[in-house]
Amino acid sequence: MQKQSFIEKLSAAVWKNLANPDANTGTEKINYTYLLTRSIQACKTNPEYIYVPLKEIAPADLPKSKKLLTDGFACEVRCQNVYLTTGYAGSKNGSRDRAAELAVRLLQKSVEVRVVHYKPIVEFIDAQFEAYLQEELKIKRVLHNYHDTRIHACLYFIAPTGHSLKSLDLVTMKKLDSKVNIIPIIAKSDAISKSELTKFKIKITSELVSNGVQIYQFPTDDESVAEINGTMNAHLPFAVIGSTEELKIGNKMMKARQYPWGTVQVENEAHCDFVKLREMLIRVNMEDLREQTHTRHYELYRRCKLEEMGFKDTDPDSKPFSLQETYEAKRNEFLGELQKKEEAMRQMFVQRVKEKEAELKEAEKELHEKFDRLKKLHQDEKKKLEDKKKSLDDEVNAFKQRKTAAELLQSQAQQAGGSQTLKRDKERKK
Q: Per the record, which residues fall in region Disordered (predicted)?
């Protein structure tokens, strides 16, 4: 096997996949050394496995200094037939046996790389479009007094690397070119030489065309500005220099940057394209930027939103029809759904009423049964009490009769005793 550093191969694979615009997005630099280190540490090192996948890198293992978003993008690391050994001589299998904990074979696995991306920018632009659309959809709209906050131009600053565009820049511009007028600008253009700057401009233009990124082109259909706009299109992307410091140059105070080897003037066309950029934006093409925003980018957004709501320009047979027909169709569809929901709710209500009536009838039946039981129990108890009362009355009457008889006997006895006493008294007197 051809000897090559594992780190070099893995690094090449990461770079190759990160160069794919669909792989990731953002503008922050990625710590590739850290990514590679964590990739190796995440590998299963058992040499008996033919396919040893990378484990997913946990967010906690990513660099602490990075500001990570909740949603990221994944790039694929593809390294086939790559081994990391300790340098032992011998066969491939022997090296694997002796370097059991260090031998790694990477075939295919996704490694999560979280970076800052274009999503907040796109959301902000869409929010301005949505505000304008909501104003348009109002019954009483006052667009002539509406404060239009739509974004008419995006100045996309490119780092002056002098080599080529970053894949992150390509992805971001690709996502933005259908939403805003992009004007690419090389920032800090005094950081590279004139010859490098010329080559860099050509390289940027070539990469934008090859990747299908549509930047804003100054219009040439108007004869009054066709010549100047055609010339300025050839200067794209503009190379600019910024400064907040004013220096006295000749008899004038001008924005400039002071270096040991000389002075760079911001508004000197021989030094940078700032004046060209200002003229093209403010004096020549401002209205065209607004028109492009309204007729192209906003209309595309509006069309997509209306299609989401069910309003399309063609019917299923690709035949155009009026908005009134679409409105009536949607209205009828909505009314049909409303009637279905009302019918379903009515059926549900009737069903619940029936269930409630059944519950009430069952409860009423139980109450009647309970009442009958209690009534019967009451009657039985009353009958028992009446029988007991009758028995007691009979006993009382019998007792009274016995008492009367006893009193009668007692009185008779007393009378008999009294007569005998009188008789004895008479006999004594005699």
A: 408-430
